[in-house]
Amino acid sequence: MEPSPPSTPMHKSRSSSGSFDAGSIGFRDMEDGSPGGAGVSGADGGFGVGEGHVAGGSFDVNGSFNENGSYNASGRGSGGGGGGGGGGGGGGGRGGRMVRGLVIKAACVIGGAFLLRKLTKSTTRWDHARAVAQSLSGEKFSTEQAARDPMTYFNIRLLACPATVSADGGKVLYFEQAFWRTPERPYRQRFYGVKPCPKEMKCDVEVSSYAVRDTSIEEYRNYCDRPKDQRPQPDEVLKDMAEHLNTVYLSACERGRRCLYEGSTPPGGFPNSWNGATRCTSELSILKNGEVHCWDRAYDDDGNQVWGVRQGPYEFKPATISSSTGSRMQPDFLTSFNSKKIEDTASATSSMD
């Protein structure tokens, strides 16, 4: 749940002889396997093509053209006398400069193309999915928000961790939600399936929520807090993924914004029958600083909101010492509710399902 960096222009200059000077240009083998032998940088920063590289950083073509237009590998003209040889030598000098110029131009074009391709390599669909799965994982709290507005928001702990990989290669996370004071007693347990959006959809990552099979739900309690050898195994996780609850479709945020990914359920939401609702919607944002913002609301047949926060999304921030110990205001506020009312209210506040 990228724009390519700007490429750096390559500057070319001409030497006093009129040929291109490649001393300021150097190419290395690219990661995608492009050949390096076509233009290997010498010790002085110049190009060496084959065995023609000389210590000064120029190209020694070792050849000239005869007066009749044929090429003489020895570099000497083969005219009818000394004048012919001299004329051939002059032609060879001009031909050598022409060859050097063409070789350097070709090297610049080819090398520049490879560099541009490397710099503009786009992020793949699976890169986006991995980034979203990683961002959702870990321990997060709504402590600061609950301290600012205790009448609206509870101090809730979210915890998610990798559980397995689905048959189509998607990441499966185990997720649970609890009050910060009782993390060992989560009131919501879910699986999240994270994978790329289908190619025909205008999004990058889809995050689907699944219920945990009723007969196995106790086996997953505090799953992420336990050693791996004391958790249900990956093949068991796939069997215990039960009813599909909803799917949020995320897109990468544009450069310059606070978020990395944001999205929502489709406009009509998904079916939901809790507390008189007929459908529910979810909005999800993943921020660059590690925060996760989610806003879940449910409506009845008449379009009336029957549960969920009205003011705005829950803001979950990565765990810190202060967030894990909770705010001082929150316990006093919570004591005014009986336990059943607290759980009924909070179960409709933030779920991403």
Describe, in short, the structure shown.
With 353 residues, the protein is of the alpha+beta class.
Commentary on this structure:
It is a single chain. Helix content is 23%, strand content 27%. The chain is elongated, with a radius of gyration of 33 Å. The chain has 353 residues and is of the alpha+beta class. The chain has two domains: 13-119, no CATH class; 125-346, CpcT/CpeT domain (Lipocalin), CATH 2.40.128. The protein has helices spanning 82-119, 125-136, 143-148, 234-240, 321-325, 329-334, 339-346, and strands at residues 13-14, 20-21, 40-41, 47-48, 64-65, 71-72, 138-141, 156-165, 171-179, 188-196, 205-212, 241-252, 259-264, 270-271, 279-287, 292-299, 305-307, 314-318. A ten-stranded antiparallel beta barrel has the order 7-8-9-10-11-12-13-15-16-18. A two-stranded antiparallel ribbon has the order 1-2.
Features:
Lipocalin, 353 residues, alpha+beta, 18 strands, 7 helices, 27% strand, two-stranded antiparallel sheet
